[in-house]
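pasting input
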Amino acid sequence: MNEVDDREPADAAAALRIIQAQQADTAARIGPRVGWFFLIWGAVWLVNGLLYFLAPGPVATWGAVAAVVAGVASSATLGARSGRGIAGGSQRQGLLYGLTWPAVMLGLGVLVGGMAGPLGLTGAQLGVLIPALFAFVAGALYAVSGAVWTYVANFVTGLWIMAVGIASVFVGLPGNALVLGVGVGGALLAVGVWELRR
Amino acid sequence: MTGVPQLDPVIHAQARLRVTATLATLAEGDRITFPRLQELLDMTAGNLSTHLRKLEEAEYVLITKAHERRTPVTYVELTRRGRRAFEEYTDALRSLLGGQA
């Protein structure tokens, strides 16, 4: 198209403006828009909480499975898309971080499921324990990743989710589902909206 | 302060400044494919190649070719020297502006 374009910036201020604009644009396009992750998982928590509160039983279970699968699929797509064309340390870091979540959550499900029989836990007890544990562990993961990335919103949200998880145990069935849905889902949605707007 | 800081002529051209600034935004040790870089900069392939060659001659960027699933991929990354040159360039700009920016 054009010849070698060796035009210099008009002056030092113009050069600095070029740098700032280019770096802001690049940063926005190569990093995942984390606000979307908050919105996705906020919606999953809210939908699941409402399902278990309003329609406990197989409807809630299958609805929750569908919501989580949709959440995993959209998070994975979002994560993979943003880092496309970039290789190196941050790509590996993102991949390992992304894989930590399903590993922890699946493992937790198996662990609690495996202990339900030996401990003789009833369906009602599991209905309180399982979602509370998921919230507590998810909150811990948010908090630790917020600490590692010095991302304060993530850290504070994590502590909040842990607190909601603990509180849900004292509420008991069926209110615990509502507390978790609104408390965890609502917080994640609020942080997501705030994150995308700033 | 003595004299006006010299601006690195390799970086001090609008197009190469944009290329260098983009590469400096990546985390140290990260590299980017040529097409993705081209997309981020909205430059033609020919234009980008020309500027990358100049940066490569100054050893500011490292261009590596790899094969991924039998498809050739060209990666571009800022060398340590390039990153340092970019930082010195921005420092020079700031001192030229005398802290007014």
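fyi The two ends of chain B are 18 Å apart (CA to CA).
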